[in-house]
Amino acid sequence: MRALQMVAPRKLALLDDVPEPSPREGEVLVRSQWVSICGSNIHPYLGLGQWAKLEYPKPPGWDGHECIGTIVESRLAGWTPGTLVLAHPQDYLGFAGRLRAKPPGLVALPATADPVPLIAAQPLATVLRAMSRIGSVANLRCAVVGQGPMGLTFTSVLRHAGARQVIGIDILSNRVEAAKRFGATDAIDASKDGPVEAVRALTGGAMADLSVEAVGFPESLATAVKLTRRFGKVYVFGVPRYESQEFPINVFFRGEMEMLSSVGAECVHFFDAAVRMLADGQLGLSPLITHRLPWRDAQRAFDMYADHTDGVLKVVLEV
Length: 319
Description:
Rossmann fold; alpha/beta; 9 helices; 26% strand; Quinone Oxidoreductase, Chain A, domain 1; globular
């Protein structure tokens, strides 16, 4: 089968002779049709920060995990070949023509003319898991630092969940503009305006009840802390680039804040809810997908995502 392989920082190989996996008991084998690039793929692709210690080449197919495809073999009762599914691949080997998957990271997709927008259910599921830790945001003032695909998803979910104010913040103009399309009540271009002062003005001095960090850089986390009111919450959602970093501990300490985070495959427990929310039109996340490219253009797709060129938000590769 074909598979992508990270052979060195910023270098991909498209292999044609990778052995096809076999499903184990309780699993299905999925013929992948579409896989999207996640922001978490970019750190190891660049080989920066804590990923500078990685050994290359990585296993073929690693680290793809946002996949739609059709079941071609099943060892799982009730799941038949021919079923179109959203699949979370076992071992995170999703940049490949075939992948193993099992529930709850396996959800049948409704019949639709274009299933590709439903691939956004995977990142949406990670936000739904985060929201399960945050609790109610009804009538809260919220700030989201970073308006990439995950930040925009968070912005949309927060507004949908009843937040009174959702302030989207980014340094890229196209993402600042996108924030309002995804539900932000206000948007701040941090390349032009100091975000702390801007949030203070927008909230009448109250600051944010909840600040979400959706980038993974030291500067973005420091900003999120400084935007948060006393006794407020800071949610660390962006995958950190570094194992350790500077942190405005005194601001956090004096503000008597709470800090939460989430990461990992536990998001699969929210797959079904995420698919239903998108399929039923409760959330409109299809504009996240700004590019659809063929498999052979994977190198270009990763470079585009890493360098924030061509107005990119999310890239879907057709396998």
